[in-house]
Task: inverse folding
């Protein structure tokens, strides 16, 4: 594919992510921290986010299957998830976490289950989106181009 | 009583112990509200028994927790009661039990729908006799209320004047209540009461009849007595709430020595009984209402408090969303093609968003004040500049409507005060709000702003008078809030400060005014006076906020009564500021020293007018009556001879008058051969740089100054008359003058300049309205007494301390710049806004944020944190990478650890090696040791070394109070942002 076309595609894609609220300015902040000394910074941080989130989501699912649900622990886990999602600017996940925490505080099992489902869904989306974005970036780099800001 | 009934019924049917709690409050209400009542009991057939009674000074309760049906077991407990709440405290004690159910009063009351009154013994230790009124609750229980007999007899014995007679009271069944008649006793036999008089030599019985009162005459030892028996119905407390079905009969026996006085004795007793009843009735109602009202008030206060807190809580989110919108608009703006429609729309959107933010801020301010979270941010500023700045902001707004906004310097005390310390932003907010209201609601005339320094003795008076109000306000504001206390302390500290000065402000308009009856309510939130508000928009929050802010600054705001027939409203408020530096006479300092020698008024530095015409003559020709009055008053207070011309056709004649006067004087003493211009320029251009006035007096050529010829200054408002006409008059006047120096200041509108600068004399100046404040001072400095700077206004302004000078006054040649004055000055204000962020809270904040954003972008190269050692304690891997990278990119040397323990150890190592961290970024929630604990330990440890490392908290919460309490210096929200980090570090550095 033409390099310019790729670059345009990336810009459009990224804009759409912001536009649809998948990402917020924190992601911009993250990108601004990436420089020559640290060329893979964003990818590194985002992969950490994936690791973190998957671990937390698994723990949460397990916690909800238990006979006696430890809501306090769950609340702490959702809090962590919220923290890491806000750190990379995963806006929708972060928003859901706020709702999730309210359900945890209210000890509402139904709400928690529903929320967990939604968080998983949103997480899946943002993961795919980010991965395809990184792929696109990689393609551009491979083609010898630079990532448009 | 209805309440008691209802609750009582609710309690019937169950015998749980907790039922006491249902009955108790109603009983307690009754015992505290019904006068004279000393005992109240609820006896339920189901076995519940609960009673309050007063024994001496203490309220006690007696209750039985077992059912009456199992009588053998039933035990009575006695327990003391809190007089305020009715709650029981202490250990219950088993007490003597009464078999209540078997008593006749209980049975009678239970089986009749009306109440029953009887004389019984109370529960208290002495078993004091009571008038007991009992009433049945639908046959399932009985409420009994007792009034002590002693209460009645005390009053009868002590208060009522029997006019030499005596009184005894006895019940129908022969129980003696009061025996006032000496040597008598009562005998009860066969349902009749006999009064027995006893002499040493015998006795005599008189029957007391139920039906007909009888009078007996007695002759004892030569004295004649009238004895009369009559029945008295004491219906007791019962009659207060229930119809008088049953009466409790008592015989009253009077013995009086003369017939005439007998009648007096009867009336008071009747009166006593009836007045007791009505009083009791009224008092119960009042007590009951008061209690309900208090409850409602407390509830309302709680609700309002919660609402305020919720609003503050929501503030962050709303602000964030709005900031997001403005941010994105800015982003779009950057991409928009310049000059396109798109750009215009975006700009409009941006303006709307700003407005919205302003509105939001005003609402949030209110909630913040209400929640007691508003604090004063003190800084040093020039008060005179601030006032002028605010007034000037509203001057153009007023000019459009034809309303002149005038700044009245009053006694000049503000100018002398110069530098003060206080919350500049809030003062601007207060002034702007009142002023904008005044301008908004004034259709014609003027708005006058006055400010002066309060007299010290007056100050204490105000202090004393407002302290009460303030305290009241504070306590209601911060009721139940701990952090409010510090604010109160802060405020009182402001007041107690010895350097604190009281500044009084008045904003006086000629608008429609506020009706007297509404004057109080304008300070309430959400209130707008409807009659005057037609077509005006606003939240109605303004004055409420203003009042709170004024009180926060230790002052009070109110509306000053105007003379009858005067239009408009006059708001007056006072605030307390710290006088930072009293510059004796900053404005006229230089001339003061020189002038003092001439006029010997060193104290004020402001001269008194000299009798001869060697001073200056100022001619004021202005359209607005108020501005004319204010300017004249101020100039005259400085000892300047002022001629005021109010109408254009008086102008030429006034000038002629001066001319002839001048010429005659000059002709008589023609010794001044030099032109004033050269004289003044030589003296002033060399020796009078304003900025260095203090040290120049010795250089002044006194001898020459003596000969300074009189100087005429014309201040002409061009709006009064067509420019060409005025110019013609002035030109004619000039021709008539000989050597006298004459200077003309043309006052022009900033919005629509109508002066043709080409026609002006090179000496003349154009000054833009409004003619007050620094502009007025600049003009005063033109006068010889005040250090004439013949170089003109422009040069004086260059050398002036005043920041306004440079744009305010321009030489006539630079006409283009005059045209651009409005925009340039506005620009300047906005610049000022960003450098002093409190000037306009919203704008300032946004501006500074934006500035920092730019700063962060450009700092990629320069790295503001270079050479700084930063420790980052954060347990989340991802967040730590983020924080480390952020700090590293800013040039810092970063170390990382994963919990509070490690952080503490690292800091200790650093302290020992004398290689301290410059900053610590501390996550608050870490395991095993959290950030708060780590901070506390670090603070203790580092104290031994005499250092204090700034610790910045990283939290996911919006408020950093906990962090501050733990001893951290600042607080940042996660995730860490570059610009916020820089901002915080900058603020810490400036603090140090």
Result:
């Amino acid at each position: 594919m033409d390099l310019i076309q790729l670059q345009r595609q990336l810009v459009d894609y990224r804009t759409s992510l912001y536009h649809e609220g998948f990402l917020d300015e924190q992601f911009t902040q993250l990108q601004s921290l990436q420089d020559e000394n640290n060329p893979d910074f964003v990818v590194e941080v985002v992969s950490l986010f994936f690791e973190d989130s998957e671990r937390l989501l698994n723990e949460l699912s397990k916690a909800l299957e238990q006979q006696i649900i430890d809501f306090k622990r769950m609340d702490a886990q959702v809090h962590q998830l919220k923290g890491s999602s806000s750190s990379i600017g995963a806006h929708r996940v972060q928003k859901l976490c706020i709702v999730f925490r309210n359900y945890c505080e209210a000890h509402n099992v139904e709400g928690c289950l529903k929320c967990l489902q939604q968080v998983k869904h949103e997480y899946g989306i943002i993961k795919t989106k980010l991965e395809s974005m990184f792929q696109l970036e990689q393609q551009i780099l491979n083609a010898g181009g630079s990532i448009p800001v | 009583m209805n309440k008691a009934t209802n609750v009582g019924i609710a309690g019937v049917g169950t015998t749980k112990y907790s039922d006491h709690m249902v009955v108790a409050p109603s009983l307690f209400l009754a015992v505290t509200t019904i006068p004279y009542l000393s005992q109240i009991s609820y006896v339920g057939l189901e076995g519940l028994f609960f009673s309050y009674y007063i024994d001496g000074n203490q309220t006690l309760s007696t209750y039985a927790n077992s059912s009456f049906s199992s009588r053998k077991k039933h035990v009575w407990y006695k327990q003391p009661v809190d007089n305020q709440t009715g709650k029981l405290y202490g250990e219950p004690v088993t007490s003597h039990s009464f078999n209540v159910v078997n008593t006749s009063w209980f049975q009678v009351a239970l089986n009749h729908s009306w109440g029953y009154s009887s004389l019984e013994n109370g529960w208290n230790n002495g078993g004091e006799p009571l008038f007991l009124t009992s009433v049945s609750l639908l046959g399932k229980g009985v409420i009994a209320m007792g009034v002590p007999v002693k209460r009645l007899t005390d009053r009868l014995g002590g208060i009522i004047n029997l006019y030499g007679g005596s009184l005894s009271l006895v019940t129908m069944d022969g129980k003696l209540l009061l025996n006032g008649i000496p040597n008598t006793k009562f005998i009860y036999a066969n349902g009749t009461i006999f009064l027995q008089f006893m002499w040493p030599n015998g006795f005599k019985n008189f029957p007391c009849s139920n039906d007909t009162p009888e009078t007996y005459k007695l002759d004892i030892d030569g004295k004649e007595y009238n004895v009369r028996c009559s029945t008295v119905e004491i219906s007791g407390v019962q009659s207060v709430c229930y119809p008088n079905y049953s009466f409790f009969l008592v015989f009253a026996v009077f013995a009086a020595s003369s017939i005439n006085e007998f009648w007096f004795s009867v009336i008071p007793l009747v009166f006593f009984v009836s007045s007791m009843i009505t009083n009791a009735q009224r008092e119960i109602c009042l007590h009951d209402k008061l209690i309900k009202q208090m409850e409602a008030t407390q509830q309302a206060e709680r609700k309002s408090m919660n609402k305020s807190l919720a609003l503050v809580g929501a503030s962050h989110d709303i602000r964030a969303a709005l900031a997001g919108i403005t941010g994105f608009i800015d982003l779009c703006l950057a991409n928009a093609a310049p000059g396109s429609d798109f750009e215009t729309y975006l700009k409009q959107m941006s303006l709307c968003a700003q407005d919205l933010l302003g509105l939001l801020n005003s609402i949030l301010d209110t909630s913040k004040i209400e929640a007691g979270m508003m604090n004063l941010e003190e800084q040093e500023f020039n008060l005179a500049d601030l006032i002028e700045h605010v007034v000037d902001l509203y001057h153009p707004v007023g000019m459009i409507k034809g309303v002149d906004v005038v700044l009245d310097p009053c006694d000049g005390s503000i100018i002398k005060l110069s530098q003060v310390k206080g919350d500049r932003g809030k003062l601007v907010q207060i002034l702007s709000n009142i002023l904008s209201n005044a301008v908004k609601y004034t259709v014609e005339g003027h708005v006058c702003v006055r400010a002066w320094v309060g007299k010290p003795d007056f100050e204490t008076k105000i202090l004393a008078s407002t302290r009460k109000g303030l305290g009241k306000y504070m306590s209601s504001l911060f009721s139940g809030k701990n952090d409010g206390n510090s604010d109160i302390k802060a405020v009182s500290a402001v007041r107690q400060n010895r350097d604190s000065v009281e500044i009084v402000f008045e904003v006086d308009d000629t608008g429609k005014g506020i009706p007297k009856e509404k004057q109080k309510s304008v300070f309430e939130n959400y209130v707008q006076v409807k009659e005057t508000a037609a077509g005006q928009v606003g939240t109605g929050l303004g004055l409420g906020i203003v009042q709170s802010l004024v009180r926060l600054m230790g002052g009070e705001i109110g509306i000053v009564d105007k003379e009858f027939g005067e239009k408009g409203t006059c708001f007056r408020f006072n605030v307390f500021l710290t006088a930072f530096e009293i510059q004796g006479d900053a404005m006229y300092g230089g001339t003061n020293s020189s002038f003092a020698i001439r006029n010997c008024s060193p104290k004020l530095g402001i001269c008194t007018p000299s009798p001869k015409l060697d001073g200056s003559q100022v001619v004021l020709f202005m359209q607005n009556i108020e501005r004319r009055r204010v300017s004249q008053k101020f100039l005259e207070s400085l000892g300047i001879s002022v001629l005021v011309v109010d109408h254009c056709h008086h102008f030429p004649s006034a000038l002629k008058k001066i001319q002839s006067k001048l010429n005659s004087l000059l002709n008589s003493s023609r010794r001044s051969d030099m032109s004033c211009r050269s004289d003044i320029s030589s003296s002033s251009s060399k020796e009078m740089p304003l900025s260095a006035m203090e040290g120049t007096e010795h250089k002044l050529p006194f001898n020459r100054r003596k000969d300074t010829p009189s100087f005429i200054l014309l201040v002409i408002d061009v709006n009064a008359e067509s420019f060409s006409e005025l110019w013609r008059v002035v030109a004619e006047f000039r021709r008539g003058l000989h050597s006298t120096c004459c200077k003309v200041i043309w006052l022009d509108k900033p919005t629509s300049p109508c002066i043709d600068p080409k026609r002006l004399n090179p000496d003349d100046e154009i000054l833009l309205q409004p003619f007050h404040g620094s502009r007025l001072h600049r003009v005063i400095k033109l006068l010889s007494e005040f250090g004439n700077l013949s170089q003109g206004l422009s040069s004086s302004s260059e050398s002036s301390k005043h920041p306004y000078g440079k744009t305010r006054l321009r030489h006539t040649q630079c006409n283009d710049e005059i045209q651009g004055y409005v925009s340039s000055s506005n620009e300047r204000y906005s610049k000022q806004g960003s450098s002093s962020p409190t000037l306009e809270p919203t704008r300032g904040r946004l501006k500074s944020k934006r500035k920092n954003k730019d700063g962060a972008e450009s700092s990629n190269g320069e790295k503001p944190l270079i050479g700084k050692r930063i420790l980052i304690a954060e347990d989340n891997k991802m967040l730590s990478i983020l924080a480390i990278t952020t700090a590293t990119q800013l040039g810092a040397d970063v170390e990382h650890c994963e919990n509070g323990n490690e952080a503490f150890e690292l800091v200790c190592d650093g302290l020992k090696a004398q290689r301290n961290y410059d900053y610590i970024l501390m996550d608050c929630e870490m395991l095993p040791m959290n950030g708060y604990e780590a901070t506390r330990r670090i603070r203790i440890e580092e104290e031994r070394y005499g250092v204090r490392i700034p610790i910045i908290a990283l939290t996911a919460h919006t408020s950093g109070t906990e962090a501050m309490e733990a001893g951290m210096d600042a607080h940042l929200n996660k995730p860490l942002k570059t610009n916020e980090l820089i901002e915080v570090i900058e603020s810490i550095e400036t603090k140090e």
Observations:
- Residues 268-366 of chain B form one domain.
- Chain B has a mean pLDDT of 68.
- Chain B has six domains: 17-148, 163-246, 268-366, 375-458+498-527+539-579, 617-664+709-782, 869-990.
- Residues 175 and 186 of chain B are 9 Å apart (CA to CA).
